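Q: I'm a student working through a structural biology exercise. My instructor gave each of us a protein and asked us to get a predicted structure, then write a short paragraph describing it. Mine is DUF1934 domain-containing protein. I'm not confident about reading structure output yet, so if you can add a plain explanation after the tokens, that would really help. Here is the sequence I was given:
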Amino acid sequence: MKIRIRNQIRFGDQIEVVDQFYEGDWKEKGGFQYLLYVNEEGEKVALKFHDRELTMTRFSSPKSIMKFMASEKSQALIPTPMGMQQFVINTVDYLLEEQSLSLSYQLLTVDGSQQFATYRLELTWED
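A: Happy to help. First, here is the predicted structure for DUF1934 domain-containing protein. I'll explain a few features afterward.
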């Protein structure tokens, strides 16, 4: 299975586009779809999703988990070069179609008062 992850990141006035391709597996279980792959750093990544929620787990050291819920906010603990950082994820748009998931989200400071960056994530997969 081919998995494509395209992420447009806006940090202040700067825009970066990341376009990555992976070989992986797709599974369906308990009303959720799963995409499993190994990233360029050799870390296993699991994407668990349905029509209103995506959980992205990176089995790094330490493990990183991000949860995106349609039109809701959630907490994230993300390892960075400055140590573990806590953010609020504000998922603005979320759309699951056949073999495609797109979402827009913002990373906010823990108190929600400042925006760290905005993202436009497009995930596609095909046999």
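A: Here are two points you could use in your paragraph. The radius of gyration is 14 Å. The mean pLDDT is 94. It's a good idea to check both against the output above yourself.
Q: Great, thank you!
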